[in-house]
Design goal:
Layout: E1 6-10, H1 15-25, E2 29-33, E3 46-50, H2 51-59, H3 63-69, E4 71-73, E5 75-80, E6 85-90, E7 98-102, H4 103-116, E8 120-122, E9 127-133, E10 136-141, E11 146-149, E12 151-154, H5 161-166, E13 174-185, E14 199-204, E15 209-214, E16 220-227, H6 234-240, H7 242-252, H8 260-265, E17 273-280, E18 288-289, E19 292-294, H9 309-326, H10 330-359, H11 363-380, H12 387-390
Parallel strand pairs: 1-2, 1-12, 2-8, 5-14, 12-19
Antiparallel strand pairs: 3-7, 4-7, 5-6, 9-10, 10-11, 13-16, 13-17, 14-15, 15-16, 18-19
Helix pairs in contact: 1-4, 1-9, 2-3, 2-9, 9-10
Length: 411
């Protein structure tokens, strides 16, 4: 094991609390420092936690709590704008292949679980700089306070301060060309759709992408991706307002033979979740330097099309803790963490980029997409084709083997 006994975790979203809990399991005391003055309840849209992400959460004992916060999804049904079924992943009314959960609910669950495990979370701590010294690293915060530990872990999201401290030339995230929206339609809204029996329907519309799941209670969870040349921040998108966005979405799905318009007719504008521009970022070239390292969205951002963003953050946090537990030096631990994670992340991000191109397809590309997708989906719908992604299991008890050189550790 490295001589690491304490850690500063910057960021209290998804990766931060998971990293702190995994480090605690590995015998390392971690404190989470969050920029928000209070808890981030109500922030963010919907996401999926796949089997591989839940497998990683099981290691730190929080998988059941996360399942309780989400809705089980047993199948993914892919449809064209005509309503034609192109493919189905999983089995309708079968065992869950993932859980659909709102980010705010996942955040609150992980926050509460970390607190229950004795993890200290400090708020109002926006990192401004980090200073390394012989036996540790000191973080300086905007409020004038400092904190020191053996290492510093950046779990501070897509615009990570820690990433820029490790590598000032690190690339910024890119815009996918899609705006994100979502929400719930309650059963008493009068939409009247039957239960989808655990199946999430994903519809490639003529002009936009729509997903929905009708729960047995009649409540409908939905999300939409609207192509837009202009990238909008969440603040800019919310300033437009729910009424106008509902008008634009209704127009976008007007020519589609799917339930999208009927569902949107039941949406209350004030309860609509407006996410703004969706972003993607390939793996940062350098994940660590000295006593600093990054995890989750700070290191890589697969787009929402992958359905793997949260799961990848969770996996990475657990793998990092394993490496710190088993390897003798920081250089070896960080290099091995990089080696274990980077090929998998890059493969998932590449697949998400292809999905984004389908969602934002123009008239000619849409025709080609609809012609070729049934054949492509029949191949991908075979469970064994996606086992590398969804059945991935971290063996916490297995000793981590070091890479032969620390070159990947940013040294």
């Amino acid at each position: 094991m490295t001589d690491v006994r304490t850690a500063l975790v910057i960021g209290g979203g998804v990766a931060g609390p998971v990293a702190a809990m995994a480090l605690r399991k590995a015998g390392i005391e971690a404190t989470v420092y969050e920029a928000y003055e209070g808890t981030a309840d109500g922030v963010g849209g919907g996401l999926g936690l796949a089997t591989n992400g839940l497998n990683a959460l099981k290691i730190i004992g929080v998988d059941d709590a996360v399942r309780a916060a989400g809705v089980p999804v047993s199948a993914m049904v892919i449809e064209s704008w005509t309503g034609k079924r192109l493919a189905e992943f999983g089995v309708t009314a079968g065992p869950p292949v993932l859980y659909s959960v709102w980010r705010t609910d996942l955040y609150r669950t992980l926050y509460d679980q970390a607190a229950a495990q004795g993890i200290r979370i400090e708020h109002g701590k926006r990192l401004t700089r980090a200073t390394e010294h012989a036996d540790g690293v000191t973080a300086s915060f905007a409020d004038g306070t400092t904190a020191s530990a053996d290492i510093l872990i950046g779990a501070d999201g897509v615009r990570s301060t820690v990433r820029s401290l490790i590598d000032p030339t690190a690339p910024a995230p890119g815009y996918t060309g899609l705006l994100g929206f979502g929400g719930f339609v309650e059963a008493d809204a009068g939409v009247g759709l039957p239960s989808t029996s655990g199946a999430m329907h994903m519809c490639f519309g003529k002009k936009a992408f729509f997903g929905y799941l009708v729960e047995p209670s009649g409540r409908i969870g939905w999300f939409a991706n609207l192509p837009s040349k202009q990238q909008l921040t969440v603040e800019e998108a919310n300033a437009v307002g729910g009424v106008e966005w509902l008008r634009q979405l209704t127009d976008a799905f007007a020519g589609d033979r799917t339930p999208a318009r009927a569902i949107l007719d039941g949406v209350a504008p004030e309860r609509m979740v407006i996410v703004g521009g969706l972003e993607i970022m390939r793996s940062a070239p350098v994940w660590s330097r000295g006593r600093m390292v990054i995890v989750g969205d700070a290191a890589h951002v697969p787009s929402n099309s992958s359905g793997q963003g949260a799961s990848m953050a969770v996996e990475g946090a657990v793998e990092l803790a394993r490496c710190l537990r088993d390897l003798p030096t920081l250089a070896e631990a960080f290099a091995t963490y990089d080696r274990l994670r980077r090929p998998r992340i890059d493969r998932i991000i590449a697949g998400a980029e292809r999905n984004n191109n389908h969602k934002a397809a123009g008239p000619v590309a849409r025709i080609l997409r609809d012609l070729t997708m049934p054949t492509m989906m029949k191949l991908l719908a075979k469970p064994e084709r996606m086992a590398w992604q969804n059945d991935y299991l971290i063996d916490w008890d297995a000793p981590v083997q070091s890479v032969p050189t620390p070159a990947l550790a940013g040294k």
